[in-house]
Amino acid sequence: MRPNLIPAATAAALTFALAACGSGPATEQSAEAGSRYPLTVQNCGEDVTIEAEPEAALTIGHSAVALLDAAGASDRIIARSGEFEAPLPEGLQNPPDDIEVIDQADPAAEAIIGTGADIVVGYGLFTAAPEALEAAGIPNLIVAGECNHDEAVVEAIGFESVFADIERYGEVFGTQDAAAASIEGFQAELSELEAQAPAQTQTAASVYYWSSSSSMSAHGGLSMANDLLERASLENVYAAEQSAYFEANFETLLDADPQVIVLSYGGYGESFEDAKAKLLSEPGATDLQAVQHDRIIGVSATDVNPDQGALRGLATLIEGATA
């Protein structure tokens, strides 16, 4: 989670084909009989070759930790980073609580190489030069839902992308059975949740703040949050925005005046009460119908990320939408 957060895919059947954002499973294997490596996978639309089974992973952000845990590979994590003081997501099977966080923000190449990691999994490199890692022979796998972090370079992200990402990491780390079991369980949970969604659609906006001093941001039509809203029978007023995350002028929220406001919190360690107070301090906030009718749903930032934690986010939205 890069100060979060944390995509609009329709509820199509999961195919496990390669997603355009590079979330698909491994697609090429070594010509050597009986050998899985070198293994080439799609990574944000480009090929990345894994020369040997990774044994030491450095994660950047919460989604990397969550997805490796779902794939049965969290025991390979030797260092963490990019978590911005926020706690690990809930519900991990094997949480790497005792693994050092080398940098709460974006790690430099020297720090990554110094950990002895043989692979990086996360939201991407913002401080480290990709060439430095390439020279050190360290592949960098980006979480599918973060391929469009700063610009719309891929199509919308949703639960199908998350499940395909888990399968991809299972292939890379040789933990396919564990990954398949996780996917099966998550698919069943998703089906149960969707059956509970209200029949009537309401308009909604999913918003958040990067920091205590930042202006309001929102989740656009390519975000994981957009997929959650759709499945919870909430129509995203920012769905036309062809991006996952963007800085939204508060005036746009006033103009849209959604029936429900979904407020993500905890991206920089703040509580829901803190985030709500900041939202309500915006000029004109009390004119919003969602404020007047107390229709502000708080969702942890880790629960709108492009990983299995979004199932908790969906459950929260459905509960809030039916209250």
From TrEMBL:
<dbReference type="InterPro" id="IPR002491">
    <property type="entry name" value="ABC_transptr_periplasmic_BD"/>
</dbReference>
<feature type="signal peptide">
    <location>
        <begin position="1"/>
        <end position="19"/>
    </location>
</feature>
<feature type="domain" description="Fe/B12 periplasmic-binding">
    <location>
        <begin position="56"/>
        <end position="323"/>
    </location>
</feature>
<dbReference type="Pfam" id="PF01497">
    <property type="entry name" value="Peripla_BP_2"/>
</dbReference>
<comment type="similarity">
    <text>Belongs to the bacterial solute-binding protein 8 family.</text>
</comment>
<protein>
    <submittedName>
        <fullName>ABC transporter substrate-binding protein</fullName>
    </submittedName>
</protein>
<dbReference type="InterPro" id="IPR050902">
    <property type="entry name" value="ABC_Transporter_SBP"/>
</dbReference>
<keyword id="KW-0732">Signal</keyword>
